[in-house]
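Troubleshooting entry. The earlier prediction with adenosine-5'-triphosphate gave an output that would not parse, so I re-checked the input for stray whitespace and re-submitted. Clean input:
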Amino acid sequence: MSLPSPSITPVSGSADRTARPLALDNVTLEYPDGGGTVKALDGVSLSVGAGQMVSLVGPSGSGKSSLLAVAATLVRPTSGNVVIDGVSTTDRRDAELTALRREKVGIIFQQPNLLPSLTAVEQLMIGHHLRGMPLKAARSRARELLGLVGLDGSAEKRPHQLSGGQKQRVNIARALMGGPKVLLVDEPTAALDHERSASIVGLLRQVTDEFQVATVMVTHDTEFVPLTDAVAVMRDGGLTAPVRPDVHHSGV
Ligand SMILES: Nc1ncnc2c1ncn2[C@@H]1O[C@H](COP(=O)(O)OP(=O)(O)OP(=O)(O)O)[C@@H](O)[C@H]1O
């Protein structure tokens, strides 16, 4: 696997934000709350370039999961726009968003949510026909990705035969199956001990570089922030600190 290129472009303030794989432009999200509304996101703008990894931190309830859900096009913002790989998502029909998500977005939740009866390689192959990938090509890509995440010998194992860290590796490999441009990661180390957490964040750093995806990782673990290019701090639905484009990483 190649090591990361050191050239990091600014995460915010770029003149051409839409050229980046992920751009949120003045996004607001309101949920109904009794008779009124609660503002989960309040005018959030953020763009992430190819091969960049951003940590998203902030207190509980500050809007981190909401930001990921909107960036993943799983939830439509109340106002503002989300642009994925140059495609503006405002006014797109649900079916178009589903296709866009399948082709461009990899989502990694804190719990791997693997299907108990399927082997690791089969977990990755789910939905290959929807991507127009023939069975043989899907199997070969799945095996390649499992090798890349360090699970060469575990392709035929089922979830109950895998450790927590190994399951999370399957989860990461699965998110890469469609060749995404954007990787959205929610607390990937929540269920892991320190050593496994470090290796999972290191792996996410590596795949960000290798596949040149734009990665946003929600984390409570500020220890891993230095492995990322920039940190976005959320409070009360907004980004409080400007994203720091000056945080360069020196490789894993
Ligand atoms: N489905 C929902 N309906 C109503 N309010 C919601 C919903 N989801 C989130 N909220 C509210 O939106 C705000 C932001 O929540 P969000 O889950 O995005 O925060 P978070 O930073 O991810 O929190 P945590 O770190 O605890 O997961 C909170 O006030 C929360 O109560």
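This one parsed fine. Helices lie at 64-71, 94-104, 120-125, 135-148, 164-176, 194-211.
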